[in-house]
Amino acid sequence: MYKIALIGNRDTIIGFKLLGVSLFPTVKKDETMEILDKLVNEEYAAIFVTEDIACQIFEEIKNLQKTSFASITIIPNKLETKCLGLKTLRKNIEKAIGTDILFRKEVE
Question: Which residues have C-beta within 8 Å of that of residue 99, sequence separation ≥ 6?
């Protein structure tokens, strides 16, 4: 059975424990890459990464999204949002269907 993982700062991810999501608290870039590499090679179908962590390893995430079975999604963190997840989603939708269906110009 495939699993769901969440990587991010402890304050943001702790509430997801009630949903049965595997939590991986981290703040360091090297530690985050180790965790992410481990998860994509295990039975994780969905991996969520908070924006504050994803900013540190964005290029690596983009590469893994192209080569990995797991769906790696960037989500907002508790303290602030940089709209990184929405920007990435918007680009992926445009690439897939050829047009922007979100119409959210403020996240450019």
Answer: none
**pLDDT of 43 over the 70 cut:** yes
Extract the tokens encoding 36: 């992410």
- Is CATH 3.30.559.30 correct for 3-80? no
Is it the case that residue 25 has pLDDT exceeding 90?
yes
Half-sphere exposure of 72 (CA within 13 A, CB side): 29
Q: What are the domain boundaries of the chain?
A: 3-80
Beta-strand (E) ranges in 34-100?
44-50, 71-75
Tell which residue, 70, 19, 20, 62, has the closest CA to residue 40: 70
Contacts of residue 79, Cβ cutoff 8 Å, sequence gap at least 6: 11, 12, 52
How far apart are alpha carbons 57 and 13 in whole angstroms? Answer: 18
> Mean pLDDT throughout 2-21?
92
Q: Which DSSP category does 45 fall into?
A: E
